[in-house]
Amino acid sequence: MYIELRHLRTIRAIHQAGGLARAAEMMNMTQSALSHQVAGLEDQVGMELFVRRSKPMTLSSAGIRLLRTADRILPEISALEEEFQSLRTGKTGRLHIAIQCHACFDWLFAVLEMFRHAWPEVDVDIRAGLAFDSFPALLREEVDLVISSNPEPLAGITFNPLFDYQPTFVASAQNPLAAKPMIEATDFRDQTLISYPVSRDKLDVFTDLLTPAKVEPRAHRLVELTAVILMLVGSNRGVAVLPDWVIRDVKTNADYITRPLAPGNLTRRLYAATRDEDAAKPFMAHFIRLGRSEPVKLQRG
Amino acid sequence: MYIELRHLRTIRAIHQAGGLARAAEMMNMTQSALSHQVAGLEDQVGMELFVRRSKPMTLSSAGIRLLRTADRILPEISALEEEFQSLRTGKTGRLHIAIQCHACFDWLFAVLEMFRHAWPEVDVDIRAGLAFDSFPALLREEVDLVISSNPEPLAGITFNPLFDYQPTFVASAQNPLAAKPMIEATDFRDQTLISYPVSRDKLDVFTDLLTPAKVEPRAHRLVELTAVILMLVGSNRGVAVLPDWVIRDVKTNADYITRPLAPGNLTRRLYAATRDEDAAKPFMAHFIRLGRSEPVKLQRG
DNA sequence: TCGCTAACGTGAATCCAATTCATAATATTC
DNA sequence: GAATATTATGAATTGGATTCACGTTAGCGA
């Protein structure tokens, strides 16, 4: 049997209006239409939904069950419709973020915290675990924004610049390299490099230093968490290259040394990638604005 | 906008089947029909529900919202349909009982207790407060069964006999009438009669004794609860006429006397009135069977 | 009890919207 | 890049919902 929402609306209207004729008026239909509709529904259901002994017809016990369901379901539909309305006008939406750079957790949380106060209706989430194909995921609408420092010219994707940072060398104060004012590619030959577990073309050390110079570090250890990387570096089990904002805490720590890389002016830029059509959405624009201003404030203070 | 269940079913099917074509097969429709339907729905809603960049098309974030609603609502509809199925086959139903005779509470609870074990799916209730127009209420399907000792020949109503009882006179042992072996109408002239608060034509004392004899008791006090009536009678503040099954407890109590009425063979019959079409329903038949057998067992033991 | 009025039911005609048919456009795969 | 699979499109068709016109029934007051 094929119950439809139309039927639920009708049942509710007849009940509210207390009769077929008034209900018909309410719904901008003829009384006859409703009569036919009810008859059809009763056919479907296989029993009488109304008592016709008394004249303004009233719900039977089976009809009351239907009414209860209607009263539960129809408000849900209304809510859904209102939600779509809000979606259209841009008050609400979804902001699922994929991050290619693990270190971004650091400032991203702070930014999201500010964001969700301004846009409480927007469904926010961070999706780790798809760092490799985050751009296809963006196009498939699995996520809505990708934090990346490797803009690729892709149809349908807009790259919004956020802020610049310096990939910075960090090592133990015990490490012999502490003697050098600046670190170059060959310095890594006899070092254990510690990095996030992502492919080399997503790691600044490789893309900007080691790969061009065709240098391979003595060992390469993959670690997920920034705190753990710093811990290992602190105990001189390896060296790392991290964005400057991450190592602001260890800069003043005597156990660590930080040094600029190679020519000395290495700068990278972080982007928020969105689908073209989303870039204009008000909450997206706001998020990107926050992503531009807040991290630099964080780094200073 | 007019979302219909059809749309929810479609969304769910496309998601389950993982594509339009397979979904169409599932729903016994052409792929084209679904394509049109989805397009129409997206028009209504005012945004894309699916991502078409990749070929087996997938839900967009708005589509996912719709899917969530569908997953909540469609099971409710299925449950409803199953319920109607059960209603048709008679496994479930409603048994709302109106009682004209207050004293019936006594045995009715016991019967209902047995009944609800046998028919757990049937919605049981006792409706007091419409003793006066219980038969119209029965026809209006406000209740489904009326316990009555006053069968009226009414179109659409079947009276199923339950059991017989004797309206019995009960008074304090202190009352002068205790001396009489049998109580007649004129004996009430100088007595306070205590009865349930219902119209006289529903009270056995009047219909079978006082009204025919045109006798009026000295006073007539209305009391709701059987226990209170007996209490008042016990302290000789009045006399009462109650069904024999109610006074089985006081028969052995020295504070009370019970006497037969008038000619001595006054017997009344209790009926369960149902709508004609309901009388055949299995759970109704079962209830009536219980209503015949259980009260007499109670009275004996 | 009669007749009036309001409310509901019925059947044929109509209309609109959902579906189909046929085919084009587009992505995916090897 | 051909072959395949998947979705889109437009005209034609179908079918179900609605309307129209009228018949029927219940309620109500004189």
Architecture overview:
2 copies of one chain form a homodimer. With 301 residues, the first copy, chain A, is an alpha/beta fold. Chain A is built from 9 helices and 12 strands. The first copy, chain A, has helices at residues 5-17, 20-26, 31-45, 61-89, 105-118, 134-139, 204-213, 226-234, 282-300, and strands at 50-51, 58-59, 93-99, 122-127, 145-148, 157-165, 167-172, 192-195, 219-222, 239-243, 256-259, 268-275. A 5-stranded mixed β-sheet of chain A has the order 4-3-5-12-6. In chain A, strands 9-8-10-7-11 form a 5-stranded mixed β-sheet, covered by helices on one side. A two-stranded antiparallel ribbon of chain A has the order 1-2. In chain A, helix 7 (204-213) links the parallel strand 8 and strand 9 (219-222). In chain A, helix 1 (5-17) crosses helix 4, helix 2 packs across helix 3 (31-45) and helix 5 (105-118) packs across helix 9. The radius of gyration of chain A is 31 Å and the shape is rod-shaped. The interface between A and B is large, with 37 and 37 residues. Chain A binds a DNA duplex (30 and 30 nucleotides) through residues 6, 19-21, 29-37, 39-40, 52-57.
Summarize this structure briefly.
Chain A has helices at 5-17, 20-26, 31-45, 61-89, 105-118, 134-139, 204-213, 226-234, 282-300, and strands at residues 50-51, 58-59, 93-99, 122-127, 145-148, 157-165, 167-172, 192-195, 219-222, 239-243, 256-259, 268-275. By secondary structure, chain A is an alpha/beta fold.
